[in-house]
Specification:
By secondary structure, this protein is mainly alpha-helical. 74% of the residues lie in helices and 0% in strands. The longest helix is centred in the middle third of the chain and has 38 residues, at 225-262.
Length: 445
């Protein structure tokens, strides 16, 4: 008995919004401070954001061709399974799903902290934040169990709020000119070599740009994927590039490098300069809704991987079951939300989670991007007709550049946190025996 078929429902607009939502989480409202502290100077600060934008566009174009060649639900897992082996696909995806859940939980807590004191002023901050976070995840779980189109519609509305906040921050550039802005270097150039500062900035920058690759998980939900997928991913990443570069320019010009490197409340500081303290309640609500959009798209995206793994027999068949009326993977959604709720009680600091997440993401992105060479080689060897619609320009140079840069991200994780590097490697290798254990259990059923 095969997993039930997912009928295409998503169009260019829906998928473009999903691309933007997968990338624009809470990162752009927090990681620029960390980047400024590590960069130490405006030159390195802007250079690393520009490199991040260019490399992410290269990655988006690479994955657009890969997605067009393999337009299937759970495309990221299918990619590893088809181009490499099912066991390697399982090793990458089992830890990626856990990593995605941890990242989603961390971001949800950051956003919930804005609104928790307003809703529960009588409780201590940590208890109130946990309560709001759990309630938010539970609410979005219900929404995602209703219908995939309902979830996408909610996402469209929430993303308008988030982009509105970014545009408001950018507009601060024209509404406020501070005479106290400092443009000096933050530390002695001799203390940290420019190349090392540049390398250390990769972790927060690429975390802020990451997420677009998950659009491959929607291959089975897309009408005319060979044309829709590359168009949507290009529109989405181009929009993100423009917004990120403008908002970072506004941060530096309004706050200055010194203030930027020290603050933990970027959005509040920027809007406070224009509207004053009375804007804090409005800002808290907007930030909370921005978190809802990020958590929502994570719940929408990640269960697609379970579907693909069930098709390959590395997860029980129930994970491949789709509600024929709502087109929702009910078990997959419930399990992923369970991972999120579990990590809420086991979470470490945001910075440490960031290092673990980028270690796992870099492994999967390097391997996924390399698959374009496998796919093209097989197509040429088997004399298959060339795909219609999209081929990445600059092949093979651009995919090689992308792989090289993400290799440097792994080096950056090693330099920043050798413990995260070691434990991350062990968890990844643990997926090998786990794959065979699960397969044996399925076979015995």
């Amino acid at each position: 008995m095969h997993a039930q078929e997912i009928k295409p429902k998503l169009r260019v607009f829906d998928l473009s919004i999903i691309v933007i939502s997968l990338v624009i989480g809470m990162g752009i409202f927090s990681t620029p401070s960390e980047v400024a502290a590590k960069a130490g100077s405006q030159e390195i600060y802007f250079l690393v954001w520009l490199v991040g934008a260019v490399v992410s566009l290269i990655g988006a174009l690479t994955f657009a061709e890969i997605g067009a060649r393999l337009p299937r639900a759970g495309g990221f897992y299918k990619l590893f399974s088809i181009c490499y082996t099912p066991v390697f696909a399982f090793m990458v995806n089992w830890i990626t799903v856990i990593s995605n859940a941890a990242s989603t939980a961390a971001v949800a807590i950051m956003g919930s902290a804005y609104i928790a004191p307003l809703l529960f002023p009588q409780l201590d901050v940590s208890t109130a934040t946990l309560l709001v976070t759990v309630s938010t995840v539970a609410l979005l779980l219900v929404v995602n169990l209703l219908d995939i189109k309902v979830s996408a519609t909610l996402l469209n509305g929430l993303m308008i709020l988030k982009i509105g906040l970014i545009l408001l921050i950018i507009s601060c550039l024209f509404a406020h000119v501070s005479p106290e802005v400092s443009t000096k270097a933050l530390h002695d150039p001799q203390a940290i070599a420019p190349w090392k500062a540049f390398l250390m900035c990769f972790i927060p920058v690429f975390f802020t740009f990451g997420g677009y690759q998950q659009t491959m998980n929607f291959g089975g939900d897309i009408a005319n994927p060979s044309r829709t997928l590359p168009r949507a991913i290009f529109i989405g990443i181009a929009t993100i590039m423009t917004l990120y570069l403008l908002v970072n320019f506004s941060y530096v010009q309004v706050l200055g490098m010194e203030h930027l490197s020290q603050t933990k409340t970027l959005a509040a500081d920027m809007i406070g300069l224009w509207f004053g303290k009375t804007a804090s309640v409005f800002l808290s609500l907007v930030m909370f809704f921005a978190v809802m959009a990020y958590v929502n798209v994570s719940i929408l995206s990640n269960p697609r991987v379970y579907y693909a793994m069930a098709e390959d027999g590395v997860l029980p068949k129930i994970f491949g079951k789709v509600n024929p009326k709502t087109q929702v993977q009910e078990v997959g959604v419930l399990v992923f939300c369970g991972f999120i709720l579990l990590t809420l009680f086991l979470m470490q600091s945001f910075a440490k989670i960031l290092q673990y997440v980028m270690f796992f993401d870099s492994i999967s992105l390097i391997t996924a991007a390399a698959a374009i060479f496998v796919l093209r080689h097989r197509a040429k060897k088997q004399k298959e007709p060339e795909i219609q619609g999209y081929r990445i320009p600059g092949y093979p140079l651009l995919p090689l550049v992308y792989i090289a840069v993400y290799t440097l991200v792994i080096v950056g994780v090693f330099v920043a946190n050798k413990i995260a590097f070691g434990w991350g490697g062990l968890l990844f290798l643990a997926g090998y025996p786990l794959f065979f254990i699960i397969r044996k259990l399925i076979a015995s059923q």
